[in-house]
Design goal:
2 copies of one chain form a homodimer.
Chain A (H helix, E strand, L loop, with lengths): L1 E6 L8 H13 L3 E7 L1 H10 L8 E5 L10 H7 L4 H11 L3 E6 L3 H12 L9 E3 L1 E3 L5 E5 L9 H19 L5 E5 L10 H11 L5 E6 L11 E3 L2 H26 L3 H8 L2 H10 L8 E4 L4 E4 L6 H16 L2 H16 L1
Parallel strand pairs in A: 1-2, 1-4, 2-3, 4-12, 7-10, 8-9, 8-10
Antiparallel strand pairs in A: 5-11, 6-7, 11-12
Chain lengths: 340, 340
């Protein structure tokens, strides 16, 4: 049985979407069990509404407090021990039968709790976020780190490459992932000191398939499976991609409504535009997993609906089933040995 | 008379597009004169094809060599003194009557030549690129620096804010431009050391209207007129925006061709899609000006057509007409005085 704890009180659509997501994930996998943290009365009501109730595979742990998005992370994790997020973190940390956690709540508090309470896998310098985006040829691309570490050393980026490669292989079935370094140009000598050094470290790292530098414009080209970056530029990369796609689709919609002729034409293309919107909807691609944490942590987007929450739970489930954490530890050990 | 020198042999469509762009700019402004650098026989032939010839306002300076895009910048500017780019740089540097230069050639060589041969305005730490992108509400946004300085100090970012503000006011008529700092979150304490320090420096800088941090997803929102960033993340920001928009429009086109129904609907929307493509075509918004250079330098995109080249020349023309360089020097002096 894979046991995953879900923080039910985080995200714009919580607790409804979170609980519905849990129920949907439970239906898909017979060997999945869930612990829901949050106000037990509310959770029970929500379950009853869906005709569900507590069972061997679904239990509730009461947590009356909620961490808001604007609370200072260090204060929140110190003062709100009875919050749905911190209860989930405590279970993850102390209960050996719990293998992963999913939260849709405050990213800052979650990163803080992960680092200070959950700790790191053996050999990991810094845990890093690795969200997944769709590529234009129907594939996916992982970005690691997308914001957990705004200041990085070349060795961090080397570890992001190893952890991200194992993640894509084990959870998404990508064989021998093509790893690129986010940079300002294609040549090895491009970029600041960090990126020039990271290039040479990545080029000589065993166990990854490093294919060179990648510029921002090529993220969605389908030529890369994993893009390695410091958390600052990775954050810019991911948010700019999402923002540009959404703004452009919004503009097209506004323009359609500006003309009767366009509106008429669009009648025949409704399905296509819905498809494009779904295609660029990052909710469909799951949450950002925090690679390198001692136990699996998946952070869903704040606006996650039930489907998005369910995808996050599946990511955590697959990480456990594929023994990803052990594989990462084994591979990082190999790198360390080689360097010595 | 405003005299601008154009490097005719750089860019995918050179020399044809470059020369056609020059002729178009000359038609628009009676007080504009151009010097064309490059192989004089080829330029003369190209002019003859358009029914044009040398005149008081159009002269040719022979330069038989060409700097390629893959040449090492420092070697190129040292060894190819007879190239169209270096001839243009020499004219800019030595001829007091020449007020600006436009090149579509190698960015690396141009940056190198600008720094080593042309020098900086009084008080400028580092010249920076400031390209312009369209926003979704029909406005524009400037990004400074987009790649000239991959390693930055907070004072550089402060200067980018001042130089960019004066540029937007004088060349684009933006009143009191709203300046944002590219960062990973909205709060003042977000980001790495550079960005935390830059935030507090910008917040206390006179002569700019600093409105806080901006995340990558909001670049096209129309809420900001100028985004200040280090050259590394600025490069990621600009290339990712351009890349995502182009990839998405390409995908929509492919999807339209996948179904007869979509193709039929698209017949009524042809004009709209052409408009979207034109809207996101960065060529329409001119080149990246190099703010802080001792004299005006505009770098056009490698794929510039005649229209794009003409827009670049107009940018240089407006910079001179508005006395932008003097205004930047005056304003930077004020900041320095305040700090002392």
């Amino acid at each position: 049985m894979v046991k995953i704890v879900l923080d039910c009180f985080g995200g714009d659509k919580s607790p409804g979407a979170n609980i519905a997501g849990a129920l949907s994930a439970l239906q898909k996998h017979d060997d999945l069990a869930m612990i829901l943290t949050g106000d037990e009365t509310v959770i029970r009501e929500e379950l009853a509404r869906s005709g569900a109730s507590e069972s061997e595979r679904l239990c509730i742990v009461h947590a009356p407090e909620i961490i808001g998005c604007n609370e200072k992370p260090t204060d929140a994790i110190r003062l709100k021990k009875e919050s749905s997020m911190m209860k989930a973190v405590q279970l993850l940390r102390k209960d050996d039968t719990v293998s992963g956690m999913v939260s849709i709540g405050s990213t800052g508090a979650l990163v803080c709790a992960a680092v200070l309470r959950v700790g790191r896998l053996r050999g990991v310098c810094r845990p890093a976020f690795c969200p997944i985006l769709p590529t234009m040829n129907g594939g996916i691309v992982g970005i690691c780190d997308s914001g957990a570490n705004v200041e990085c050393h070349p060795e961090y980026l080397q570890q992001f490459a190893v952890m991200g490669s194992r993640y894509l292989e084990n959870v998404y079935g990508v064989e021998n992932p093509r790893v690129a370094l986010l940079n300002v140009g294609a040549e090895a000598e491009k970029g600041d000191t960090l990126h020039i050094e990271a290039y040479s470290v990545l080029a000589s790292t065993d166990g990854i398939r490093f294919v060179g530098n990648m510029e921002g414009r090529d993220l969605l080209s389908g030529e890369y499976d994993l893009v390695v970056c410091d958390g600052f530029s990775g954050n810019v990369l991911v948010k700019t991609t999402e923002g540009t796609a959404l703004e452009l689709l919004k503009k097209i919609k506004t323009d359609i409504y500006s003309s009767g002729l366009y509106k008429f034409g669009a009648l025949f293309m409704k399905k296509m535009f819905e498809h494009e919107k779904e295609f660029m909807n990052y909710q469909n691609y799951g949450g950002s997993v925090m690679l390198g944490s001692a136990k699996t942590i998946v952070k869903g987007h704040g606006s996650s609906n039930a489907k998005a929450v369910s995808v996050c739970i599946e990511q955590a489930y697959k990480m456990e089933k594929s023994r990803l954490c052990e594989k990462i530890e084994e591979d990082l050990e190999k790198i360390t040995n080689i360097e010595m």
